[in-house]
Amino acid sequence: MQNVENVLFINPYHGGSHKQLIDTLTKYVDKPTTVYLKPKKWHWKARCSGFILSDLIPPIKNEKVLFCTSVLNLAELLGLRPDLNVLKKVVYFHENQLVYPVQVMKERDVQYQINEITTCLCADIVIFNSTFNQHSFLTNINKIIKIIPDFKPKNITEKIKSKCIVLYYPISYPIINREKDNRPSKLHIIWPHRWEYDKNPEKFCNTLFKLKEFGKEFVNRCDFLNYLGMGHVVVSTADHEFFGVAMLESTYLGCYPLVPNDLVYPEIYPKECLYKNEDELFEKLSGFCDNPTNALDARKHLNIDLERFSEETVIPKFLNVLQNT
Questions:
Q1: Predicted confidence band at 187 (pLDDT cuts at 50, 70, 90)?
Q2: DSSP assignment of 153-176, as one string?
């Protein structure tokens, strides 16, 4: 791989997939400078990290490139730290707030969305982790701009679009022994998501209750790391998803994926893995409950290229972007 050095990595919310990405990238960069904030109080980090980090980032010495996640209000940071403007500025979007499913639309606060838009305007390169992520962001910019009561900025989408590229999230797949598969006879279902309303746990639980009502036998595990090797099926019921690292990791480790026919999922998974609604999800899981080995057989014959999301495939593309050229 090509040699990259002197990158300033800024992560206002250094946890979960955001942390995994930065940790992976820094392995391939010589002499990185890293400035992180703890993964607590996401909303406060999104609002305040710009001026918090302006005091924490050391004076520029040899750094040539600034890489940050979209949680950071980059425009605010650059205003407070104008010395950072000379750096090549790269922003990574693991998700975007422009299509976040708000629970109450009345008097919607769009500050997070405005922050992301202004961040893109002052960046040199904007990376999205999927085509769906990029498309959903660009096509919803004008909806946010229209909320501004007067003096609406013009041509914002066009200004941002020319900076955008898609690079899938680089997954570090675990090493597994594919000769041994000791999964139990009863169907084990994996649901590897945050217990938040945008991941729609209610839909998942309703399906489980219905399976129980029909006398189907299964075991559900929410602890992904401890129980993944026992899973037959991995399920998403998300209403807000732009990639889904845990779903792909589960699929790599032998689970059959069942995902909504929506969001990023048709971009990643074959059509046989997609379900249209809760009833279809129930029918698919019900069949696997009757014969769990069918899920394993279906996974073995599933035509999905997981290597295109691997660290070995994706990292060289990131390093090309991080070159100071």
A1: confident
A2: --SHHHHHHTTEEE----B-PPP-
